[in-house]
Amino acid sequence: MEEHEYVERAKKRILEVLDTEKAVVVLELEARLSEAGYADSGLNINPHHVTSALRDLTRAGDVLRASGPTRGGAEIDTIQPANQRGRTTAIAQAAARKRLLYARYRGWAQSSVRNPSGLVGPAGEEAVRAALRASGALQPAHPEFGPVSSLLGITLTGPVDSAGFLVPFSQYLPGQPVTVLVEVKNLRGWIYPNSAELYQLLSKATALQQAHPDQPIMPVLVCRKAHETTYWMAHQLGFVVIAMDTQFVGTVDEDALNQVRTELHFQDLRHGHGPSLRVRDRFRDTLPGICTRVASQWCETALHPDLSSWISYLKEARRHERNMAMVELRAAATAAGHRGGW
After folding, report:
1. What is the mean pLDDT of residues 114-135?
2. In whole angstroms, what separates CA 128 from the centre of its chain?
3. Residue 41 has pLDDT above 70, yes or no
4. How large is the C-alpha radius of gyration of the chain?
5. What φ, ψ does residue 33 adopt, rounded to 5°?
6. CA–CA separation, 62 and 11 (whole Å)
7. What is the value of pTM for the model shown?
8. Would you place residue 319 in the very low, low, confident or very high pLDDT band (cuts 50, 70, 90)?
């Protein structure tokens, strides 16, 4: 299917959702279109197509963004149908409800005086650490797989959420241990090749590899969701992406969580701190068999002058600089012999 066909499908679905829901927040719209299955064909619509469709509908005057306050005073945007004739009150009530629910979710996700790191981020990190412990595959670099600021005698450019050493096996014989860096991004948004969070990990792994060119090193990014092009990129450049397909939120009121899950369609929200079974299984069953190959490819990437320089640049790049930098990174990857597609 061509790009414009996906966008047209997304535009149709956005209008259908708004006809039913009256008002939505952007991340809810992505959840309903990208993760729920398209009603007619069973196919989801990727978030970047939702973004394009929403932009087109806004420019055409079919939908509008309306900002309103929550009880706490924060301003939250909702997407609403532009034609509100005969349903102004219903739309206003729906928008107020969605703002309240999204403010509740954002309160879990963002820092506060009571929870300086929020609840969602630490819950994801603990779900991964519990999974690493349960896998039995990784020798931790820090007790209980806690944050690591120094590895292989090198102070990292920033701490990673976890790290350890993975022993590969070939024909029942152990190979050279692979140093594994793990970052956890327990976010609602999908990770794409141009996502800033990806380069926070890759830049640290680049610096470590350059300091130890003969040491097998494998970066692993754990997130809630990743676009398929991110997996293609990971395969070509030499890192691993694990999508939990679950967003742990820590200890919150169960009724409040159910309301957010149901009404905002955040269906993968889970109470507690894991463990992530997806992460456990990948480390236990998959990574020991591929870590040597992945680390070898990562070494080539990190020691390649063009690839490594653009990875480092993308870590600091502002949003408006990112697209041009991605063009250069893709060009460098193609010149290095990779197939692209991401």
Report:
1. 95
2. 14
3. no
4. 22
5. -95, -35
6. 10
7. 0.94
8. confident
Question: Which amino acid, one-letter code, is at 271?
Answer: H
Architecture of the domain made up of 120-335 = 3-Layer(aba) Sandwich (3.40)
Phi, psi of 22 (to 5 degrees): 75, -35
> Domain 3-109 is in which class?
mainly alpha
d(CA 207, CA 213): 10
Question: Domains of the chain: which residue ranges?
Answer: 3-109, 120-335
Distance CA 256, CA 268 (A): 15
Sheet holding 217-223, edge to edge: 138-140, 162-166, 178-185, 217-223, 240-243
| Residue 190: Cβ within 10 Å count | 20
- Can you give the pLDDT at residue 42? 58
Residue 68 to residue 46: CA distance in whole angstroms: 27
Q: How would you label 249-276 residue by residue, b for 16+ Cβ within 10 Å and e otherwise?
A: bbebeeeebebbbebbbbebbbeebbbb
H/E element, 150: strand 148-151
Indicate whether 172 pLDDT > 80.
no
Q: How far apart are the C-alpha atoms of 115 and 194, rounded to whole Å? A: 29
